[in-house]
Amino acid sequence: MASPLTYPKAKGTTVNRYNNRATYDVKAIHSIVNESSVLHVAFAPDVEDPFPAILPMIGTMGSFDYPSAGLDEPLDCYLHGYVSSRIMRLAASSPQGLPVSIAATKVDGLVLALTPNANSYNYRSAILHGYASIVEKTEEKLWAMELITNSVVPDRWKNSRVPPDSAEMQSTKILRVKITAASGKVREGGPHDEAKDTTREDVTGSTWIGVVPVVEKLCEPIPASQNKIGELPNYIADYVADMNANAEAYALNAARLP
Q1: What is the structure's pLDDT at 50?
Q2: Across all residues in the chain, what is the average pLDDT?
Q3: SUPFAM superfamilies given for it (predicted)?
Q4: Distance between start and end Cα atoms, the chain
Q5: What is the pLDDT of residues 98-145, one digit of tens each?
Q6: Mean pLDDT of 230-252
Q7: Could you tell me how many helices (H) and strands (E) the chain has, helices first?
Q8: pLDDT reading at 246 higher than 70
Q9: To the nearest 10°, the Cα dihedral for 241, 244, 250, 254?
Q10: Which residues are paired to 132 by β-bridges?
Q11: Smaller CB count within 10 Å for the chain: N or C?
Q12: Quick one: which of 71, 105, 108, 107 has its CA closest to 250?
């Protein structure tokens, strides 16, 4: 059996603190990105602006050249944005691609320990570095728009008015980020207290410790006032149920790990 594919360790993505929680596994990192509703994308701003730029964006991992590629295979990160946004303008003027950093985080639990310094989260996080370029070909752009739409709710694309009209195509830009390095970090389990506190009865007898699981929950869908569909489509109802069940199962399991 072949070894799992991993990202190379780079200076900016190598985990130093709590490196026992680090992962460079391609599948694990891609999963964290795809399970995050919002990605934060950082890039160098215009020369006149001294502050680093960062944007919350919608995006997902995929491969236009190999659409059937799994999460354990090389993938690009596709990001959706408006035509005149600064990141799109900078990417369009960068022949080699605009250097970007992408961050994704999922919080799975509040870890409450004996001391404030030992409090923590159960979490999954990923950092990706790569070069962003504008998707120019219409075929790839439509493919990426469908991929991103379905990352919000599976099958939403084909259950909407598609394809986008010319105005929508002109106002929307898609970035393809070629990933050069990435790392992930995962914490699971309960609090990790120091012996100097766990052996003190005055502390252990007065402080509750444990994990409060955190679940990203989708509530019952509410129809718009203009909605003309009588019953909630199965593809939406099934996604809500599946996502809630999976999120709760993960958070509970992460909290119970030793």
Answers
A1: 87
A2: 95
A3: FMN-binding split barrel
A4: 29
A5: 999 999 999 999 999 999 999 999 999 999 999 999 999 999 999 999
A6: 97
A7: 7, 8
A8: yes
A9: -150
A10: 98, 177
A11: N
A12: 108
What is the phi/psi pair of residue 71, to 5°?
-65, -15
Residue environment code for 106-142, b if the CB has 16+ CB neighbours within 10 A, otherwise e: bebbebbbbeeeeebbbbbbbbbbbbbbbbeeeeebb
Token look-up 């679940």 returns 215
Residue 1: the pLDDT is 67
Give the length of the chain.
Answer: 258
CA–CA gap between residue 59 and residue 82 (Å, rounded): 13
| Residue 25 DSSP class | B
The amino acid sitting at 2 is: A
Answer yes or no: pTM beyond 0.90: yes
Fold (CATH) for 19-256 = Pnp Oxidase; Chain A (2.30.110)
The two tokens of residue 218 are 């989708």
Tokens of 131: 């070069």
Name residue 241's amino acid. A
Residue 63 gets which letter from DSSP?
-
